[in-house]
Amino acid sequence: MTDKQAPGILDSFSSDFKRIEEVLEQHFASHIPFVNEISRHILFANGKRIRPLLTVCSARLCGVDADYAYDLSAVPEYLHAASLLHDDVVDAGEMRRGVPPAYKVWGNSAAVLVGDYLYAKAIGLASQFGNVKIAEEIANTVGLMAEGEIIQLLHAKRPSFDEKTYSDIIYRKTAALISTSCRIGALLAQAPQEQEEAVSTYGLNLGNAFQLIDDVLDYTADESELGKAIGTDLAEGKLTLPIVIAVKEADEKDSKRLLSIMGAGHPSDEDMKWVKNLLTSTGAIEYSRNKARDLVQAACDSLDVFEPSETRELLKALALFVLERRK
Amino acid sequence: MTDKQAPGILDSFSSDFKRIEEVLEQHFASHIPFVNEISRHILFANGKRIRPLLTVCSARLCGVDADYAYDLSAVPEYLHAASLLHDDVVDAGEMRRGVPPAYKVWGNSAAVLVGDYLYAKAIGLASQFGNVKIAEEIANTVGLMAEGEIIQLLHAKRPSFDEKTYSDIIYRKTAALISTSCRIGALLAQAPQEQEEAVSTYGLNLGNAFQLIDDVLDYTADESELGKAIGTDLAEGKLTLPIVIAVKEADEKDSKRLLSIMGAGHPSDEDMKWVKNLLTSTGAIEYSRNKARDLVQAACDSLDVFEPSETRELLKALALFVLERRK
């Protein structure tokens, strides 16, 4: 929960994080020990808890600082965990948060079914707040997330890909849930439409920035800090923004070589080094970071419909923190 | 939709089935053609539409005969389709309703993700009726279904299994959703508690009977009628009630041989014939059919809280029809 780069901002939420861990522990349990074992593996393995924090803070910003906001905050985290279980099956990922993913430990079937179980827990919990809009919002988000992963699957290893498709994928796969994490906080608070839209826009921009930085870190981070292997996106043929821009900006020869490395999978260390250099020399990394910066600015601006408050400033600081993260 | 054994009863619902097909067509669409292709493969491949029919008839029995009952009826059918997509991945089934299952045609990843998409569509649709109880009921059912498949997975090919575990699995995997199909009809109609419970009990008993007959048919049906290979449960090591009873009733030698055939998988034709004979000679088939008959009787009895009506009698006839089905 702490980070070397900005101990201040996440420490400000330490009492929130404590309650969030408690509610996460409280609502997921099945009476089948095997289900709990797998649920724990994905739920309690160094998750950043950004989504529940956003639900709690959005509710607070909209005037509700009650304990049941924490209960609601478990919903997006369970959804996130469920989607990770399924995405790891789909992407055949090697590591997740520094440990082998569930499908590698317990098999595809268990990962699929416990994912379904956690989706169901999330939606069941979301239905308990007497507000159908919350359940509807959650269901729509699950649909978007599945579609996002499908679009990514359909585009994997295909050299036809543009920034618009990339944006569409990260919106569905990441930003939609982060935006929803904020929106359900506002819905819980029965906030006016303007406030509901403001926190949703904040979450949308934050989520897009978060994923952009994630995709940049896959090529620039330190392996031991990231908790997963560097260059996994390249190995999986995942076309992220840095690659899209490099393909566009490089000369024809380099562009072809890059696409051929992407398509082949299992890049050599030499290939990896060459790709990293190309992403820097074409300005692809800088372009992506700048784009993330603009998104974070837009996220902060959207909160200006609220009066100044400690929560508002903390949410702005949290957005800025996304740009600084190294893992 | 028609059946040689009892053309009368299903024909009575032909106008309902027509509207059900229309709403099923109406609500599932994604703007991603690939998602629609897979959704269609599972949704429009000879499904019996029992679940939507039960939603519509339960609403009608509780006094609501409005067009929006059909819209709601798509919810359990989408859930059912989603669970079939995931279950086929888990069970590695060879055939589904006479065609190869989606995971065999498009791969595991696509089947998992389109399953998620259909779950989301079902829950999104369920949220649109302004009644949180419906969404809550649906979410609980999805959790039960995932748990049921997990319990089955944990018990597959293990010789320790009893009638209680079998009942628990078929309740979760089949009867819970059929019961929920009825209950949401009552919830839509804002029926009194007594009526809600009556249709739910009807669905529960009907669902249990339905699955029992399904498990019997796997050993007794004609392959071309069933739309899938006979003996697939045996090949998959699936311990259904006929097997549980035969293990209990057979002498030690036969019981051991049966468990060893179950555990080995890929039974020979000779093994298959021997198992079929054992299931008959031990009375396991008869026991299972009798149990299904008792459940159908209980289903019919539960509807007696309603005044006599055409719908009530049709639902009773539908329950009796389950005993007659050959596929």
In words, what does this structure look like?
- The structure is a homodimer of 327-residue chains.
- The first copy, chain A, is mainly α.
- Chain A is 75% helix and 0% strand.
- In chain A, helix 4 packs across helix 9.
List keywords for this structure.
327 residues; homodimer; mainly alpha; disordered N terminus; globular; Farnesyl Diphosphate Synthase
Q: How many helix segments of chain A?
A: 17
Q: Which assembly state applies to the chains in this document?
A: homodimer
Largest interface: chains, residues each: A-B, 44 and 44 residues
The pLDDT mean of chain A sits at 90
According to CATH, what is the class of chain A? Answer: Mainly Alpha
Instruction: Assign the CATH superfamily of chain A.
Output: Farnesyl Diphosphate Synthase
Low-confidence stretches of chain A: 1-6
Tell me the Rg of chain A in angstroms.
19 Å
